[in-house]
Amino acid sequence: MKFNNFKQVLFGAVFSFITIGVLTLLTYKTQFGVFLIASFGSTMVLLFGYPESPFAQPKNIFFGHLLTASVGVIFVNFIPLPLYLSIPLAVGIAVGLMILLNVTHPPAGGNPIVVLMGSASYNYLLNPIIFGSIILILFGVILNRFIAKKKYPLS
Length: 155
Hints:
mainly alpha
């Protein structure tokens, strides 16, 4: 393994540990609410493994998660279909909207599934989606730019 690859592996692992660790502490050691969602783990792959990817940029992370979770919440509250219909329909609409609005973030594609299976409320959009995404982006900027010395975000 080349040194540069080892460095990328090490940064990706350590930065993911730190970021998800903070979200975990906020979730389990404070009264501020839930800050973790499964798709944030997948976001770590892009944010710290491939920060130069357009899918890893702050706009895509924030709006990708918010948009797809919002589609799920809309389905929970306004579209009374059986789960076997609402889940694939919500995922399809959410993915299509991310592509249409140029905020594609692949890990966010699973958010409607989680929202619908858990019957998440509107509060889910604020916490963990909005606050969690902001924390991810802040850590992404700080760790990528100032510690890893990478140009992040790209624009």
